[in-house]
Amino acid sequence: MLKIIFTTLTLFISLNVMAQMQFCTNDLEDFPTRSGGRVKPFYVLATDTLKFISGSTKVGELSATEAFCKLSLKAFGMPLELPIQIKVEHVEAKKLLGIPESETLISVESFSSKIDLVNAEISKIKENNSYKKELNKIKQRWQAYEAIIQARLWTIPVLNAGTIEFISLGEFLSPEKLDEARTQSSNPIQYLFAKAKSDYLSKNGDQYLLELKYFKWNFFLWAMIGSLLAIILLISFKNQIPGLILTTLSIGLQIGAMTMRVLISGRAPVTNMYETVMFSGFGALIISVIIALYRKEILFLLAGLGFNILSLMMMKFANGMLDPGISPLVPVLRDNFWLSTHVTTVILSYAALALSWILANGLLIRERFFNLSSSEYRYGVDLIYTCIKFGVVLLSAGIILGGVWADYSWGRFWGWDPKETWSLIVLLVYMAILHGKSTSWIPPHRFVPLVAGAFMSVMMAWFGVNYILASGLHSYGFSEGGAVFLGSFFSLQVVLLIITSFRLKTTQSNSP
Amino acid sequence: MNELIKTYRKIELFFGNLKFAVVIISIFTVFLTYGTFMESYHGTEYANRLVYKSFIFMAVQFCMFLSILFATLIRLPPKKHLYGFYVIHAGLITLFLGSFITYQSGIDGTLTLAPNLPARQIQLSQDEFKIELPSQGKEVSVDLPFSAGEKDLKLDYEGIKLKTFLPFSEDKLSWIPIKIQDPSQSTSKYHLFNENFGEFITLSLHPESDFNNTQQLGPLNVHYMPGTLFECFIKNTQEGLIVWNSETAKCLSPQSNEIIKRKNISGKQIAEIDFFGTKVSFLPEMSPLPLGPDLELNENSPFRVFSKKLFEKSPHLFLFGEAVAYFDKTNSEWQGQKLQKNAPHPLPWMGFKINLLENRIDAYGTQIPHYIKPIQDNSQIISGEMKAVLVEVEGKEFWVRSNSPVSFNSDNGKIRFELGKKLITLPYELVLDQFKMDTDPGTNNPASYESFVTLFKGNKGAEKHHVFMNNPLKHDNFTFYQASYFQTQQGPFGSVLSVNYDPGRPWKYLGSLLLVLGSIWHYVLRKKRISKPGASHA
Fold it and tell me: What's residue A7's pLDDT?
């Protein structure tokens, strides 16, 4: 039966190749489809999937939408070859597949002959180490590609007994439907798609199109440019008004983007690493504005803008580590009240501590490479202390709220789970520094490098628990994005502390 | 009295000192960091045993408590600028108090609900060793230590000695020497593998070995037989019969002309074979047992017969210590080969090879639990989950493994040993009416886990409840939370609820509130700051 359908369609389509080529245009971007448990615009499905497979959202000159559509039509005999490649990052995986270390892509044609090899290698490795994870990911990329070219991944809404159901493209373009559509239009495929979209819109509305706007408008990119210009203007000119206007604009853009994300997902924007980075960057900017107004000190704003830019850059460029996609939540997190209180409080505390980290490193660099009076140094220490106070209060509240949520949901206030334990470690690290600050052990010249170093505990709690501890035993391949990022961050911070400590030793007598 | 006050002051100064606080916070942090890495490598239970619930960690926490307490006392009478400080420390002391109450009197366990079956027993995390003497109507329960490593128990109950406890272990092959060597009681270890799969198999003919003489690996059946039968297996005869003497392990694979066939009264075919001078008769279509003089099946005879044809349709691998035999479908014949150690021999199925690793007649193989640190992968313990206790009764030592009870026939009657979890019984029952798992549309990703339960309260009637994530059932100071689920052999899903009784809860909430309010008061509301250099003082 399937053969008959394919033959019919092949004949049909081969007679209309040009028409079908014209069908696969960017006009399909706003077509409703369902994937990963959510209804979304076809543009999002196409972009996310092709990015997952090859790391790129374009295939030659074609957009993701056009390429995905054309690949899907291959299932019906479209004689089209597109240069699709599969991303391979792990060195061992590259060796297995016979691709040079300097390259990160393998063509689907070459890979198809090596899928058995990958399967055999996966079954041989008992531990779920980074190599096995990478092989599984490569296999998933191949499966995603196969699902596209077999017309399984693209789902189409159909009106059935008054409700909308989604079926695969393969099922949707049945000979019966095409025959029926041919009586209505000279271009039956376009007719069927137009009808499917119109049926969906009439039943469920166009709420899903907000996601298209969210990705197309790219507010976060504009916010990054805004924050970058704002920091340049605030440093370069005495007149702070232009810088402040751009800061306000950046904040507005970020609020707009986050609001859209909340409306799309229906939950607080703090449920995965991408969103926590997003919210921390925004939170740092807001906290810096509040403290800057409270202390009447522009340095806070500069620190806030600095961290905001870092976060926005990570969101833009570190997609291997931070997935910008919007996915449904695991059951235990489906509680908006606790998500909106516990997680946001903890992330805001990390944001406040990030400000102290930027100010501490800034002070270390200024002290090492520029002239700094002891009163300026003491004043800098006080600014750092202000940020830590905010961070510590927010973190205490966040941990307590987490305990209450855990008690409410799982029946235990505290369970020594790595994530909660590391948040407590962060609090203890800063509490040890704050207590020590009142003793002779931690005078100002030790306080600043300690605060700069203490942020490593925040990074461990934030990223390390997910990317290092969660990967389990023997998985320290440092081949996964998060681990590489964290390792680089720790190395840079340690190097900076070493460089700046030489100065401290030689000039300690002059230090505050 | 003065001396006492002086000593108190010294203690107060020592524990209330800021430097002591820094040291103890740092030590506490080191423990926590170590604990998270142990949790990541070896799982939650190991981390709890090694760090979080260890005596030394408790001692560190107690020192933290002393530090907080004396840091507060040393700063009395109250000073206005320290009000926030007092509230923070009061909050922390209250939190410690609440945690201590929970530690002492709280209950934290799981209730497993099979569909439509009443359940009232809560399983706790505490390991328990049970000794039952049914003939004497006695039952003893021993709480096992919450240690991370191997522990000497040194417990003696009426001559029953509990010697060693392994909280995490794995069975390993051990060789027990045999005084009188017998080739028909050998034990062998092989490696069966192809490109995608590999399995170590140990098979034994010794009656006291823990290993069997057959094993099933997917569609492949592996049989382990005395080496003397090998020649009979590889001899291709038309009849395909093998006759063997189970006492001497001698065998015969007769050709057609060596079998005298006749029919009995009911028309069944009787085969008479000359087994090295002894005439043996069988009904090969009906039974492996020989016929006695009265033509009835003789169960006491050492002779057996079977047809190799039974093993030609599906994959059967016959191992004879240092030899292997199988039916090769391609050539329609039985083939065999002598095996040498570490020289893999190809088999006719899916590129499999068999490699002889060890073959012994001077010792038999058995499984002995050995301590190992558990290994965690994706929140699942992949090795070391088994617990074991070494028991000695009447001079005989044996291991009792978790969830695998052992019965021992002693001079005083049967004794039953069981290593499991401590259970407590609720005064009411819960029945799982239905377990429901919703998925996100168009996917298999779970969207919710829900248990529909009926709570039977004895004379007080029954209540229906709906338990799901973030919506627990509260009853009689106990709280039941949706924790996990499982599928029964019959098909429907069962549910696992975590059960909690926490008398320290109000103290923890009060302490938390004080801590947060105190932090805001102390750190945010106090206006103590250094002015910007060059700026005029306010």
Answer: 46
B454 and B431 both lie in a single domain: yes
CA distance to A237, A262, A466, B255, per residue, from A336 (Å): 43, 11, 22, 81
pLDDT in tens, A311-324: 999 999 887 788 88
- The pLDDT of A184-196, averaged and rounded, is 89
Contacts of A495 (CB under 8 A, 6+ apart): none
What is the dihedral sign for C-alpha A159, A160, A163, A166? negative
Cα A76 to chain centroid distance, Å, stands at 35
Contact A120 B196 (CB under 8 A): yes
Closest CB from A331, A412, A414 relative to B448: A331
**Residue B269: HSE in the Cβ half-sphere, 13 Å Cα cutoff:** 7
pLDDT at residue A3 tops 50: no
Q: Clarify whether residues B201 and B281 are in a common domain.
A: yes
Is B336 found in the same domain as B271? Answer: yes
B446:A331 CB<8 A: yes
**Residue A491: exposure state from Cβ atoms within 10 A (0-12, 13-18, ≥19):** exposed
Q: How far apart (Å, rounded) are the C-alpha atoms in residues A315 and A280? A: 11
CB of A416 less than 8 A from some CB of B: yes
Q: Which of B150, B168, B152, B146 has the alpha carbon at shortest distance from B58? A: B146
pLDDT in tens, B115-171: 999 999 999 989 999 999 988 888 999 999 999 999 999 999 888 999 999 999 999
Shared-domain flag, residues B349 and B470:
no
The residue behind tokens 């003491």 is A378
Q: How far apart are CA A130 and CA A140, in angstroms?
A: 15
d(CA B80, CA A412): 36
Q: Which of A286, A233, A277 is nearest to A255 (CA)?
A: A286
Which chain B residue has the Cα nearest residue A329? B447
Residue B80 lies in a domain: yes
Determine whether A316 is exposed, middle or buried from the number of CB atoms within 10 Å of its CB (0-12, 13-18, 19+).
Answer: middle
Handedness of CA B15, B19, B21, B24 (dihedral sign): negative
Say if the ipTM goes beyond 0.85.
yes
A371 and chain B: CB distance < 8 Å anywhere?
Answer: no
8 A C-beta contact, residue B176 and residue B206:
no
Do B348 and B217 have their domain in common? Answer: yes
Beta strands, E only, A85-147: 85-87, 105-107
Distance CA B450, CA B9 (A): 58
Measured distance CA(A80)–CA(A21) in Å, rounded: 10
Please check whether residue B536 lies inside any domain of the structure: no
Name residues 274-303 of chain B within 8 A of A (Cβ). Answer: none
How many domains are there within chain B? 4
In this structure, the answer to whether residues B194 and B332 fall within a common structural domain is yes
Tell me what pLDDT residue B529 has: 66
Question: Within this chain, do residues B200 and B326 fall inside the same structural domain, yes or no?
Answer: yes
- Angle between the N-to-C axes of helices B55-73 and B83-105, in degrees from 0 to 180, rounded to the nearest 10: 150
- Pairwise CB contact (< 8 Å): A331 & B22: no
d(CA A243, CA A106): 46
Nearest to B15 by CA among B59, B69, B61: B69
User: Any bridge partners for residue A439, and if so which?
Assistant: none
Q: CB of A32 within 8 A of CB of A157?
A: yes
Q: Are residues B514 and B497 in the same domain?
A: no
Rounded Cα distance, A403 and A393, in Å: 15
| A:B CB pairs within 8 Å | 176
Show the tokens assigned to A500: 């700046």
Question: Which of A88-92, B92-96, B197-201 shows the lowest per-residue confidence on average (mean pLDDT)?
Answer: B197-201
Does residue B42 lie in a domain region? yes
Question: Does residue B530 form part of some domain?
Answer: no
Range of the domain at B165: 130-174+369-420
